[in-house]
């Protein structure tokens, strides 16, 4: 699959989110929305009301990444609101199969997120229940962290487990011009980039450059 870029608005200006989403609309594939509850991760960010507001203005589908304590309760509401993709964390979900199926039934792509220290192999049997597997390449909670190279072998193992299934492999955390090629070579095809996009003078051009790097690396 051709690489896809999902800029994270965690690094955008929260006072002008609609404008910052519009800036990358012609270059990106998704808008990555990090939902954090200050329980599952040590940070508090955006919630359902902000997602509902963004859905009214965004020309791109929303890629909602729920880093929250009770995704079984809340995830379906994001899908029902109109999010294009909703990812729950394996470490937090109590009934992942039911929740993933509910997300799909509401019309969104269902994603399963895994933290850096969580092995991917125990979740192989869930690959048929998801549309995307998200591997965290930093400890979740804050933007601007340094990429964890230790996760790259897991990316390769995940790609092997996915095989020919129609499941996207997303990496999230520390993705930049310095790291995206390693991620693509390891098998990732969806890339979340926050600081690398919104910290650039021209966010849209930053997205285009990241896409070009990922395409070249995937071709190799």
From TrEMBL:
Transmembrane segments: none annotated. It catalyses: D-ribulose 5-phosphate = D-xylulose 5-phosphate. InterPro entries: Aldolase_TIM, Ribul_P_3_epim, Ribul_P_3_epim-like, RibuloseP-bd_barrel. It is an enzyme of class 5 (isomerase). A divalent metal cation binds at residues 32, 34, 65, 172. The active site is at 34 (proton acceptor), 172 (proton donor). Its EC number is 5.1.3.1. Binds 1 divalent metal cation per subunit. It comes from the Bacteria. Substrate binds at residues 8, 65, 141-144, 172-174, 194-195. Keywords: Carbohydrate metabolism, Isomerase, Metal-binding. Catalyzes the reversible epimerization of D-ribulose 5-phosphate to D-xylulose 5-phosphate. HAMAP family: RPE (MF_02227). Belongs to the ribulose-phosphate 3-epimerase family. This is Ribulose-phosphate 3-epimerase. The gene is rpe.
């Amino acid at each position: 699959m051709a690489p896809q870029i999902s800029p994270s608005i965690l690094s955008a200006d929260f006072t002008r989110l609609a404008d910052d989403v519009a800036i990358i609309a012609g270059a990106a594939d998704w808008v990555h929305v990090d939902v954090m509850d200050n329980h599952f991760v040590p940070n508090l960010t955006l919630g359902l009301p902000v997602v509902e507001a963004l859905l009214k203005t965004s020309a791109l589908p929303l890629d909602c990444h729920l880093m929250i304590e009770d995704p079984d309760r809340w995830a379906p509401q994001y899908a029902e609101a109109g999010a294009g993709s909703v990812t729950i964390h394996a470490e937090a979900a109590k009934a992942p199969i039911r929740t993933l199926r509910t997300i799909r039934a509401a019309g969104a792509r269902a994603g399963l997120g895994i933290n850096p220290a969580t092995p991917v192999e125990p979740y192989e049997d869930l690959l048929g229940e998801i549309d995307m597997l998200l591997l965290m390449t930093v400890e979740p909670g804050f933007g601007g962290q340094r990429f964890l190279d230790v996760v790259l072998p897991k990316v390769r193992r995940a790609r092997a487990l996915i095989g020919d299934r129609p499941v996207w492999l997303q990496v999230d955390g520390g993705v930049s011009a310095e790291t995206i090629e390693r991620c693509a070579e390891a098998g990732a095809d969806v890339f979340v980039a926050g600081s690398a996009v919104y910290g650039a003078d021209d966010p849209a051009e930053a997205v285009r450059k990241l896409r070009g790097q990922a395409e070249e690396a995937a071709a190799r």
